[in-house]
Predict the 3D structure of the following.
Amino acid sequence: MSDSNSSLRKAASLCCKKIHIGAAILPKPLFEYDTIDVANIDVVKDDNSIRIDDNQHTIEPIKNATVSYPSQYPPLHSISDTNEIYPTKKLPMYAQVLIREFNSVVIEHHLKWSPLCHTLPGPINASSPSDRIGRYDFYHVDAMVDFALQHDMEVKGHTLIWHVTSPVEFLNTLDAKQLEEEMRRHIFTTMGHFRGRIHMWDVVNEALAPDGSLANNIFLRKIGPCYIEKAFRYAHEADPSAILIYNDNKVEGGVDGPNPQKAEGYYKLLQSLVKNKVPIHAAGMQSHFNAGGVGVNRVPSPFAVKQQIHRIGNLGLKVHFSEMDVRVSQLPLNLQNLAQRQIYHDIIAAALTEPAFDGVWLWGFTDRHTWVKNFYYDDSPLVLDEMYQKKEAYIGLLDALRTLNVSGIVGGGVNLNSDVDSENRPWGYKWITNDCEADKSQQTIAFGDERPDWVHESQNP
Ligand code: XIL
């Protein structure tokens, strides 16, 4: 069957409930041409089609992209100015595919504390700290937010309080009271600037250690465990209409998954925030999966993920897959597409059977721009390849979204009642690497280490 008008965004629009289908974005590929554009390699043309299995999937070109394309970063301005100021230009492929496929974006890097006022933005290629120490400059983020809004895409703000990308040299000079005041100032400055344009925020990110306790970071050390509650209350004060989210990783599988302690700690933290009437509305599960992972790094089953979403939903919270990508390079080549397609399909189809599940944001959308290559190793974790061609993973995600379309089959045929099938074979048995006795040192992560899990995993693949 030809999928000529197939797109993730269209499939999401046809779902029987509102589903966010989003992607993390970066300013450089969004606003600047790269080789694929300059060489005029038109990867999105009428007769372009790719064969996957026995289905023909045709990429629909962006017809008459008549939107404004800033020839340079626009000055800080409101969205209404955009159309008058800049001549219409062909959008970079990255931008064309983004607006075709997604109804939401999340700012991958530039809306974090340090990039906003301590190291970026300066020119897009700035690698050295800018001279703007202490001053906020929303230049890059304004450009991305305005672009998204211009294309009817919602924006998720990521992330207000995260020790990994906070200006810790500066924060270390403060006492507890001063640090709390700086935290409040940052939240008000940032949310205030985007109020009315960004309606959902990752307020606190990765506050948990691998054993489910609170991670040893500067906020915990100086302010105490209440820093999380305080951050949410400040965020609510800054924008009472905003959807406020707690975001973390390796929590997706719940107590039956590969990280039961952290998943339980995540649930208990959410439960306590709700019990204390903290203004929190959603829980983000990052969903950075490694198809070749073993032990604590293996992929949780759809059944385990569904159970985790279900119990968080019972707290009255929505649940997101907030940063999904699926690494495959540690699998044999002949299993990579199969595994990646099944993971994207089965886990999202299972999540969509839960009323609390609100949507999925991919951490990037093309293998041409993935953080994995910088922070792990060479891999192809996303649903479009380096030439923006749809991969089998794309079809898996598209089919998962379609389970909620009219005539779709809710659950997509995935086993939602156990981890094994009727012949007692574990989910993913065709590609999962058995939990060999991997070197334990590769699996344990120092207790309370401030650095996030994914830093360790990248060193011990
Ligand atoms: C990563 C970005 O992808 C990189 O571009 C940036 O340099 C570092 O942060 N969990 C998170 C994200 O919450 O913010 C991280 O994103 C990936 C891990």
Observations:
- The longest strand covers residues 318-327.
- The pocket of XIL is lined by residues 108-109, 205, 286, 323, 371, 454 (CB under 6 Å).
- The chain has two domains: 8-32+92-459, 34-89.
- Residues 43-88, 124-129, 437-451, 456-461 have pLDDT under 50 and may be disordered.
